[in-house]
Amino acid sequence: MIYPVVMAGGTGSRLWPMSRELYPKQFLSLVGKKTLLQETLKRLNGIDTASPVLICNEDHRFLAAEQLRQIGLLDHNIILEPVGRNTAPAIALAAQTALESDADALLLVLAADHAVADAEAFRAAVRQAEPFAEAGELVTFGIVPTHAETGYGYIRRGEAVDTLFKVAQFVEKPNSVTANDYVASGGYYWNSGMFLFRADRYLEELKAYRPDIFEACQSAMKTIQSDLDFIRVDADAFEQCPSESVDYAVMEKTSRALVMPLDAGWNDVGSWSALWELGEKDEYGNVCKGDVIHHQTENTYVLAENALVTTVGVKDLVIVQTKDAVLVADIHQVQDVKRIVGELKSQGREECRLHREVYRPWGKYDSIDNGKRYQVKRITVKPGEKLSVQMHHHRAEHWVVVSGTANVTINDKTQMLTENQSIYISVGSVHALENPGKIPLELIEVQSGPYLGEDDVVRFDDRYGRC
């Protein structure tokens, strides 16, 4: 049985301002109607697989769980990494998890943030590689290059093994001259970071070549905790694990690596120019998302999240508008967007971490306005969900219900509020908010006080296990 293992870490900084540290690109709908993560899992339809195993970090756990729930694949199948340690340890955790259910488990390792235009070609490649993986080979999927790309690593193929090839060499990202030589030779593929191999064989190879990683992951899995739909490994043990990619730890060392050529319209969605390439273009070569009007504009990507964006007399640009930031960049220099993110971090600005609209396990909030000693939020609570029982040392809150029904508890008193009703929560009051209804609860929250940071929350009880 094939066990899909989806790597959902990373921050996608080159797709700022849409992709941010706490809401990265794998959880965004950038290519199709569903998010990149959901499209990755949807691509598996037609292959006989077990429930997927998703690997992500603590910050993204509720985003990941909600997106799996939306497509009916949430099944206590999210492994939380206490710290990021790259792909080799993450796959080891997934391998040990799969072996608990199936001694013959095959791992299909995928990234959560890639796009594939031809899903059937992808599935055909997986089926073609499956018997080789069952026989103990470690198969990597090499993308048939369409141009001389300098942003990817390459795989040089060796002798043919039926319809696959032995891996002769993994090579780093080349310069443009070398990349042209690779493509012209016909013997190189882009390194996709997708793999198919037996779980037990991967662990054997990892133990042989990187026993330190193997032993650290073994120790981390000895004490696991179940928490809602999450699997938590031993944090102290995992923190001792070296950080290493699966390529360096295993694939470059093993003698059993095969490469399966894949020609399926693959794209790693690594930049705004990639999204321009993937998008449906108008007669002038523009890709427009949202409320956009353009005049004498060519070869430009425009994304308008919540406002009208207009362009006149421009070409070869990327323009991205979100609720709290605007990016304008030359389409040929979008790789440098990560430098803007670095500058935001150095200035301590929240725009690199958070959107104005922030998602929580119970719903979301949108920071509408703020000033000296006040902040206004629009809060949405999903039916049946509840915020933690909490209090604040520095701020008071005033809630006004816009739609839906709210059960509000302040200290020992609980009351129900409906549309147009309001309530005041003083500093230091222990309070909670719950939506007992069948429709989303919408309310406006006005905070006032000398300090309005999100860390001024003392939680007494929380159904989502937050502290």
Brief overview:
It contains eleven helices and 30 strands.
What topology emerges from the helices and strands here?
Elements: E1 2-7, H1 36-42, E2 53-57, H2 61-70, E3 78-81, H3 87-99, E4 106-111, E5 115-116, H4 119-134, E6 138-143, E7 154-161, E8 164-171, H5 176-185, E9 188-198, H6 199-209, H7 211-222, E10 225-227, E11 230-232, H8 235-239, H9 246-251, E12 257-262, E13 266-267, H10 272-278, E14 287-289, E15 292-295, E16 301-304, E17 309-312, E18 317-321, E19 326-330, H11 337-346, E20 357-360, E21 363-371, E22 374-381, E23 389-391, E24 396-403, E25 406-410, E26 413-417, E27 422-425, E28 431-434, E29 441-448, E30 458-461
Parallel strand pairs: 1-2, 1-4, 2-3, 3-11, 6-12, 14-16, 15-17, 16-18
Antiparallel strand pairs: 4-9, 5-13, 6-9, 7-8, 7-9, 8-12, 10-11, 18-19, 20-21, 21-22, 22-29, 23-30, 24-27, 24-29, 25-26, 25-28
Could you characterize the architecture of this molecule?
By secondary structure, the protein is an alpha/beta fold. It contains eleven helices and 30 strands. It has a six-stranded antiparallel sheet with strand order 20-21-22-29-24-27, with no helix packed on it. α3 crosses α6 (199-209), α3 crosses α7 (211-222) and α6 (199-209) crosses α7. The longest helix has 16 residues, at 119-134. The chain is globular and about 75 Å long. The protein starts with a strand and ends in a 6-residue tail after the last strand. The mean pLDDT is 96.
